[in-house]
Amino acid sequence: MVDDTKSSADAHAGTSDGTDILHEVLNQPGKWAVFFDIDGTLIDIADTPDGIVVPDDLAENLTRLSAKLSGAVALVTGRALPYADQLFKPHVFPIAGLHGAERRSMSGAIERVTPGPDFEALKASLAEEAAAWPGVLVEDKGLAVAAHYRQAPTFQGQVEAAMERYRERAGSDFTLQRGKMVVEIRPARASKGDALRAFLSEEPFAGRLPIAIGDDVTDEAMFRVANKLGGHSIRISDIAADTVASATLGSAAELRALIAKLAAA
Ligand SMILES: O=P(O)(O)OC[C@H]1O[C@H](O[C@H]2O[C@H](CO)[C@@H](O)[C@H](O)[C@H]2O)[C@H](O)[C@@H](O)[C@@H]1O
Description:
Cofactor: Mg(2+)
Bound molecules: ligand L263DTV3
Distance between the termini: 38 Å
GO biological process, one term: trehalose biosynthetic process
Order of helices and strands: EHEHEHEEEHEEHEEHEHEEH
Keywords: Hydrolase, Magnesium, Metal-binding
Organism: Rhizobium soli
Strand content: 15-25%
């Protein structure tokens, strides 16, 4: 398993332009595999987890890009697989969900880590406790649970403390995952970096160099793997984020425009 625990110590602000990297993809389509995060990367951030808008042409453009790369395009997300799938239906992509804790390869086979029996009770207690914090949303993702404070930032301290407590109760098989106005408890045994490595061990990804594209702390794990393997990493950010990514792009909208251009090329 990949060490994705390092944060700022080995970080540097990405300075290259992600646009050049993505244009390179079509010059040598047999060389690259592209891994896309979803929220904040392919899709704009919204006030609530269910409030996102998936642009009409996004799935179609990803499918076209994927065809140009002989299928070597995958989604790597913090969302649960069924939720992420319905965002792109009827298009179906190889995908890793829950920050790498579940993964469906090109063949359709699904790998999942299994939670302990107490996890359902833990999620119920958390939802009950969070009901006292107006605006805090608890997102039950099956093998993981997220507490969102985007609509109630004043409760950040309480949410952080509660999630640390529940993580301890869940035991060492689980870890805390911080993100954009969210704290999650997720299985510890996998990361987005592990998911990327697993994809690269299989067709049609095997033998290709990875390009990992994301916008958040959880994506740093796949950036490290992409960098280590000689690929590229692109962080979507409108500020100089603390990142190990080797390049940046300004926004999800900018990325979608590039994908559309590559899909039509
Ligand atoms: O790995 P990702 O695909 O980027 O998913 C990360 C988390 O995304 C979602 O939460 C984030 O997006 C919401 C909608 O824009 C936003 O309201 C929230 O504040 C963000 O944290 C999703 O709800 C989580 O389950 C994912 O882990």
